[in-house]
Write a structure and sequence with these properties.
Length: 410
């Protein structure tokens, strides 16, 4: 229940992707580590250093007081089943969101689900025993002073990188692309009532769909296979009766050796059939507001709108209007496209036929509890969206639709 969970709900959303070619043919990878390498949640504060061939260790390392390490037992079978069931609910939710916008649904893949299961539990195992700062959540590195918890000694280790993990799962035999989306969420609840993994997973999936750089991979029609997992743990140093942690890992992949899929016309998410979106975005890596001075934690933006024309070489979105239907309020917006892309010439650079519309909600009093005012768009409200698109500098197309938000997310 919303009233039973404290306002200190924290979530971090981080993305990685790779492209693999047939084994033995000099395969390459692209963007297979999260950038920048940041802690997955603000409360992860202690320094950690990956160990490499030339990494120096302290002569007498000081070991913190941590819980004893326990290997997984047969009792973990039920926990694994619960995590995979929650992951399947996430896959179904995302698949329905895609289909509603004409993108096509996902096909469940048990190998991808196993990759997600192992990696989310790798992170949960690590963070349940010790707080570490500087952890790249897409990596399964070994850390100085914590060798017994990380890298190959972690009982859920499957490979140092996403590329290693998909190769372990025997995906490296064919040409394909893969993506990995991770959300970490922590809750504190004085009543001791935790959110179920399935409910937490759906909430985190909505968060992915409100994060531009994750959203664009989740609505990519070429990613047709998916497998997810939600792990639940007690964050290190907290009371297991009132503190709860969740990690959603969702691994997607294209169909091996399939030709690229191109949708016709203007595709968007949200779209006319979309209901129940998040109202706000509080965090994403990479940060979509980079260079603006905005702190999303304190000054969130509303549910972003992804725009793409697959058949176009370039698009330019203009004449944008986002209106709260009931309140008759026009919401200011910012646009990210190839002209002002904050990640130009990086792995996250947007193609020229894609853009984000981001509602700027600073003036809205959308929070329903607490003292803060800006919680993005208003909850359970309809928003009319319209805009023009100049296609390849020669053809003007128009688009309009209405979508609705769900409950206010904090």
């Amino acid at each position: 229940m919303k009233s039973s969970v404290s306002s200190s709900v924290l979530a971090s959303i981080i993305f990685s992707s790779i492209v693999l070619t047939a084994c033995g043919g000099g395969g390459s990878s692209d963007n297979h580590t999260a950038k920048p390498s940041t802690p997955t949640a603000p409360e992860v504060t202690l320094p950690a250093q990956p160990i490499g061939p030339s990494a120096a260790k302290p002569t007498k390392p000081e070991k913190p007081s941590i819980k004893p390490v326990e290997s997984p037992t047969e009792t973990d079978i039920e926990k694994k089943s619960e995590g995979l069931r929650a992951g399947l609910a996430v896959d179904n939710f995302l698949s329905l969101q895609r289909q509603a916008c004409g993108i096509g649904g996902y096909t469940y893949d048990d190998k991808l689900a196993e990759i997600s299961y192992k990696h989310s539990n790798y992170l949960s195992y690590l963070f349940s025993h010790v707080n570490l700062g500087g952890v790249n959540p897409h990596q399964e590195d070994t850390y100085q002073n914590y060798e017994h918890l990380s890298g190959p000694k972690n009982p859920f280790f499957m490979g140092a990188t996403l590329e290693d993990r998909v190769k372990t799962a025997k995906y490296s035999e064919l040409s394909f692309s893969a993506s990995e989306n991770i959300v970490q969420r922590t809750e504190r609840n004085s009543n001791g009532i935790s959110t179920t993994p399935e409910e937490a997973g759906i909430n985190m999936a909505r968060g992915l769909l409100s994060a531009p750089y994750h959203l664009r991979t989740l609505v990519n029609p070429n990613f047709v296979n998916s497998g997810s997992n939600v792990s639940m743990y007690t964050p290190s140093g907290t009371d297991p009766k009132s503190s709860f942690g969740y990690i959603l890992t969702s691994t997607g992949a294209s169909k091996p050796n399939a030709a690229p899929t191109n949708l016709s016309g203007i595709t968007t998410y949200p779209c006319a059939a979309t209901t129940g979106t998040n109202t706000a975005l509080y965090d994403e890596s990479p940060n979509p507001t980079k260079g603006t001075g905005r702190n999303l934690r304190t000054d969130p933006i509303g549910q972003p709108i992804h725009v793409k024309i697959w058949s176009a070489k370039t698009i330019k979105v203009s004449n944008i209007k986002v209106t709260d239907v009931a309140r008759k309020i026009d919401i200011p917006v910012a646009v990210i496209d190839y002209n002002n892309d904050p990640y130009k010439n990086t792995d996250y650079q947007l193609p020229d036929n894609e853009a984000f519309i981001m509602p700027i909600t600073d003036s809205l009093n959308s929070c329903e509890t607490g003292t803060r005012k800006n919680c993005g768009l208003y909850g359970n409200s309809k928003y009319a969206v319209s805009f023009d698109v100049m296609v390849d500098n020669r053809e003007l197309q128009k688009k309009s639709f209405t979508f609705s938000t769900g409950n206010v997310n904090y």
